[in-house]
């Protein structure tokens, strides 16, 4: 029998604490913490994510500034907006929802956000600090995973951790956080040989590969901790993760469900990072 890691409950607990900190900030400084969210285009998934982020801000007592530009907005227009937000005293964190439309150079836009307002933890300075195990702003999803491990008393020290996926948003920062927590880390991706065997050797398996039910029971060691970052649709259009949950759950010691696992933690850590950015301002 495995323990189901309840991301929803942990997120609710942390959001309560974040709300208290946001209220204390307002009482001390006389104005609210502000997060700017920039969406360009009509990507349906991005629209849902952005809506959820804005709602979470409201509930946490953080003021949100929401900008929705059309899909054909010029790159210069997006950059001008970001520059304006960088200059604003009311805005402590800036989030540009990704992916941006193809005609816009994502790197150019993100490069305008200074580390102090980069609540996504995407910029080179924040990533570099993470690599060097220094104080920084950490990307929300992997940060949320670490909070889950901590909450459930799972110490990565000395454990074999396998991260499936090498994205800048999840896989790479996840691997760095686990190394910083003294795990022995392997990062797997589409070119990895013997993927099944590598995964099956993991004490902690973090899956962020973006393929529905990709990780099957034979890829999981008995008693492993399985963290599913995926948000996919199965053959019936039902929401599921990258892990074949029904078959893996009895083999794992701890497992995150989809929905209700990592998802609620990602937005929670965005709120957390925004409070952190504001408190440093
Ligand atoms: N698109 C998918 N995930 C994320 C995220 O964590 N931050 C931003 N800005 N865009 C995303």
From TrEMBL:
Q: Which domain of life is it from?
A: Bacteria
Domain Tetrahydrofolate dehydrogenase/cyclohydrolase catalytic spans what residues? 5-120
| UniProt-recorded name of the protein | Bifunctional protein FolD
What pathway is it annotated to?
One-carbon metabolism; tetrahydrofolate interconversion
Enumerate the catalysed reactions.
Answer: (6R)-5,10-methenyltetrahydrofolate + H2O = (6R)-10-formyltetrahydrofolate + H(+); (6R)-5,10-methylene-5,6,7,8-tetrahydrofolate + NADP(+) = (6R)-5,10-methenyltetrahydrofolate + NADPH
On subunit structure and binding partners, the annotation says: Homodimer.
Q: Name one GO molecular function term.
A: methylenetetrahydrofolate dehydrogenase (NADP+) activity
Q: What does this protein do?
A: Catalyzes the oxidation of 5,10-methylenetetrahydrofolate to 5,10-methenyltetrahydrofolate and then the hydrolysis of 5,10-methenyltetrahydrofolate to 10-formyltetrahydrofolate.
């Amino acid at each position: 029998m495995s323990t189901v890691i309840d991301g929803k409950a942990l997120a609710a607990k942390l959001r309560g604490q974040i709300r208290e900190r946001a209220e204390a900030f307002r009482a001390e400084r006389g104005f609210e913490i502000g997060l700017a969210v920039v969406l360009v285009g009509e990507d349906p998934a991005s629209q849902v994510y952005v809506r959820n982020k804005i709602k979470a801000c409201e509930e946490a007592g953080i003021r949100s500034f929401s900008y929705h530009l059309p899909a054909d907005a010029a790159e210069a227009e997006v950059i001008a907006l970001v520059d304006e937000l960088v200059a604003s005293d009311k805005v402590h964190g800036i989030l540009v929802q990704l992916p941006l439309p193809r005609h816009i150079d994502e790197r150019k836009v993100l490069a305008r956000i200074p580390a102090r307002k980069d609540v996504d933890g995407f910029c080179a300075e924040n990533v570099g600090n993470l690599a060097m195990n220094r104080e920084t702003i950490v990307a929300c999803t992997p940060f949320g995973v670490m909070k889950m491990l901590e909450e459930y008393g799972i110490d990565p020290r000395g454990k074999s951790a396998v991260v499936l996926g090498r994205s800048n948003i999840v896989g790479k920062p996840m691997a760095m956080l686990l190394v910083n927590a003294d795990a022995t880390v392997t990062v797997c991706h589409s070119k990895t040989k013997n993927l099944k065997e590598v995964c099956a050797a993991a004490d902690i398996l973090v899956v962020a590969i973006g393929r529905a039910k990709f990780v099957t029971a034979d890829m999981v060691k008995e008693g492993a901790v399985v963290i599913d970052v995926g948000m996919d649709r199965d053959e019936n259009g039902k929401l599921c993760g990258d892990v074949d949950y029904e078959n893996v759950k009895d083999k794992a010691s701890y497992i995150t469900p989809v929905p209700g696992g990592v998802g609620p933690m990602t937005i929670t850590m965005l709120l957390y990072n925004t409070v952190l950015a504001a408190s440093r301002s």
